[in-house]
Structures are given as C-alpha cells and as structure tokens.
Amino acid sequence: MSSTPLLPSSNHNHNPAHAQDEGTYFSYVLRSLGLSKASSVQRAGASVSVVVVVSLFVWVAVEFGAPPPVNVIMLVSDGFGPASQTLARNYNAFIKEAGPELRLPLDSILVGSSRTRSSSSLVTDSAAGATAFSCALKSYNGAIGVNPEGVPCGTILEAAKLKGYMTGLVATSRITHATPASFSAHVIDREMEDEIAVQQIGNYSLGRMVDLAFGGGSCHFKPQTGSNAGSCRADDLDLLSWGVEKYRWNILESVDVFRNLDVTAVSLPLLGLFTPDHMSFEIDRDDTKEPSLKEMAIKALDILSYATRRSRKGFFIMIEGSRIDMAAHINDPAAHVHDILQYNHLIEAVIVMISTSDHETGGLSVAHELGNVYPDYAWYPEVLRPVQNSTEKIARHLISYPNKSALPTYITETVLPQWLGIKDATKTELDFLTNPNRTAAEYQEFLGIMVSDRAGLGWATHGHSAVDVNLYAHGYKSELLRGNHENTDIGLFMQAVLNVDLQSVTSRLAAGSWWKEVLGRFNAFSKNIGQSAGYNKLHYHEKTPAL
Fold this sequence. Notes:
Number of helices: 18
Largest sheet: 11 strands, mixed
InterPro entries: Alkaline_phosphatase, Alkaline_phosphatase_AS, Alkaline_phosphatase_core_sf
CATH class of the largest domain: Alpha Beta
EC number: 3.1.3.1
Keywords: Hydrolase, Magnesium, Metal-binding, Phosphoprotein, Zinc
Helix content: 25-40%
Enzyme class: hydrolase
Structural class: alpha/beta
Distance between the termini: 55 Å
CATH topology of the largest domain: Alkaline Phosphatase, subunit A
CATH superfamily of the largest domain: Alkaline Phosphatase, subunit A
Strand content: 5-15%
Number of domains: 2
C-alpha cells in the first residue's frame, strides 16, 4: 500500500508553499474520479485551503446508455457529535425492545472523523463550519460565504449552477440561517438574514443561483408593514412578490400543496417556507402543518432528479438536519434524540455517500458515575420515552399560561407527569418551577436538567465544543475519505466530483459594486443592533410567532 496520504495535512491551510502539494492532491482526486482536468484551488488571501468532506452523496443514473449525470447530495447534521449517535442508538434499541447491538443507518458507513476548527477559533460556529464546506476554505466565526478578510468566496452551489447543474437547499432551520446561507449568500455577519434572503432570491451579482429551497424562515421574506403577518424584516421589501415577478419563483403556500405536488409537473425555481421562524423540533412537529426533514429531502430529490433526467449535468443539493444542534444548545435530550432519529431515517431513505457535522454541540456525555465505587454507572434511555414535547415548547407554554395562581398545580399535576414523565420531583425542583416570575429561558434550562439528570446524561456547555465529529461515507470513491480530515477537505472533493472551479466564481464575485453596497448595509445593520451579531447567541427572532 502506498504511504502517500490521501489528503494533505491541516498545516497546508496556513502555508502557501504547500500549494503545489494541494494541487497534486486535487489532480489525484480528479484522476480517481475519472476526470481529466483540474480546476484551480480556492484561495483565502495568501493561503490555500483544502476542503474536508461533510455530508455528501454522489449517485449516478444511467438512461439508455447516455453519459450519466453526476448528482452531489451533501448532508449536514448540525451539532451532531459522536456521543449523540450513541445516545440515539441506545434509545432506538430501547424503544424497539432490541438488544444493544442494534445499529442505526449511519453506523454501517462510518469511515473516519473530521476536525472542525475555524480560522478564528479552535471551536467553530455553524457559519464558519458551513463556509469551510461551501468555499473549501477556513474563515472566521460568523462568516457567511466570505474568506478571513471578509471577501466573498465562490461556493460549490454557485459553481455548480454556473456550470449547468441544478441546485437545491433543504433545512429545518430558517433557510437564511448559517448553514444554508453559507452555500447561497455572502455577508460578513451571519445575523444579516434580511440581506441573505435578498441574495437567495437572486438579487446579487451572480443572479439567481438556487433552483429549489425548502425550510423555515418566511419572516425574512415578508415586508415589515402591510397585510403580511409574521415579518421579521427591518424594511418593507416583499421578497416573495419580488421573487415571483422578477425571478419567476413558484411559491408553495401550504404543506398540503407541498404534499400534493406532481414532481413531473413542477416548475422551477420553487420555494417552500413552512414556518415564520425555524421549523419545529421533530418531537413537537404537527404533521398537518409542517413536513418532516425526510419528506422535504425526498420531495426535493425527486423534483431535481426529474428536472435533470435528460441533462448531461445533474444537480447539487445541501440538506441539513438543523434542529439537532438547537436541541443540544438548550440541553434537551429528548428533542435532540428525536431529531437525530429523523436524520437517520433520511439516511435510510437516501443512499448517502458522505455525511458529517459542522461541529458538536452541548458537550454531551452519555452516563453518570454513581458514587465513589468504580465502575458503577447510570444511563437510562427509558427516561426519554414518555417525554411528549421539547423543553422549548413547554417553557413557552408556561410563560403564556393565563392563570398564574393555578400554575403550580398545573405544573405538578399536568406538565411534569404527563408531558415529561416525571413523577418524583423534589421539593427543591417544585419550588423553582412554581415561582411565577421565572423566564422562559429559566424554565427551559431547568426542565432540561431534570430530564437529563434522571436519564444519566451530562452536558458541558450550551454552546459548541471542539471535539472531532464522525465522518460517514459509502460507495463511489469513499476510500478517499478514510481517516481523520480537516473540515475543509470536502470542498475539494465536491469540486472534483462536479468538475467545477470555485476560484473562477470568486473572481466573478469580485466584479462590480454590489459588495460595497452590501458592506454599506452591514454598517447600518450593525449600528441598529449595537453589536457584532455574528456572536449573538439567540437563535430565535423574538417578534415572530411561537411555533
């Protein structure tokens, strides 16, 4: 076996002297994929960055001997670390009354791990993590499709579209949130979601790059004033009307319309935004109002597959299980495990080549040590089974409960036993919960602790961690992904598979005055909020209706 590494060292991200080595690797990947011509490698300032593989799947459909189109499906499980897969596997085995040897769909395609640091920190955020995937370079926390100097970098979605591929985005977050935004927009601060929505519709230097988008976050597409309810824009731009009139977007008005779509009769571009803010956690999701992640992904794949059936180019799509991360942020184990299982159901339905995470969230540990006697541990997955709702939803409900004098009885007789399965609350716990002056954040955190403690689960943080994340791959050239990689190795792989040129897209983005205008809007935005919003810990928009 050759001793030559399949992927370059992470040190190459900082030393331009290694550019030749990275070009050699890129050529090697192209040759391995049966392609002959290498595209140029994306550069950030003087440094050259190679990409790592995050969730990606390549499959080929052959029709009557024609050259097969290449379809790249990138799957991102946001905030999903190794311990989370253990949690989900153990819980799944319990509810199915199977032995601990029962595996989840991801388990059979584990090939390695991915390092997740950003250019500004050993602990990345989702914006920098997704930009590493989309632009094949490291950037700072908060960066959306820009390099460390804040200059737009061409994304794999844009490069694919400009090469003739069709493109799509699916997420259970707002479609303007960090991960989908990093493939489809360029801003120096992730909180500029009004601007991100404008670019996703098609109003920037490259024009419309997205052919299909499903997710949440309609509030960023509706004007602040007028008859449209549920807006969170700071201006009166009506992007839905503008998108229809100027860019010929077709808008899905409801989940029923979505489910009744005839994929053979769909006109693209197609936009389906099913909630004002993020979509619900899977544990809270009302099936009559919101489709599941699996539903959206399969519908999107069916539509894009049919649309490209006679094309020599296929499609690129990024699909994100966004809410896995948000459940971990609030240390809610039941919401976390249900979103992980939904993601695994998606893996089961879609033949995946690569799947990984942008980072781990929560610092999850599975089991508590009992006392001082070693080894004696507690981990009880059965505690999660009776939980009916996320702590987020319960906390919002308690804050809005109309009869404050009856709240203590309601909590002890209904909320704890019926919604969370807790029948052994202590006096200290009840005293905390029945205080009518508690905030939603206090309720949310405390309820998460109550469930986690009883299950034997521990959380180290409400933020992200620096732990490596699992890398999954199966099929076409998956041997290139064995071992431990920088998160920037995926971009090169996708660039090679699609045979596109990220640097040429970066050059096109540098033309014209559009970026100066975006920076001008950022200056106004940053003055309005009074801080660098890229580090804003709030995932939700307070003025949008509760889900």
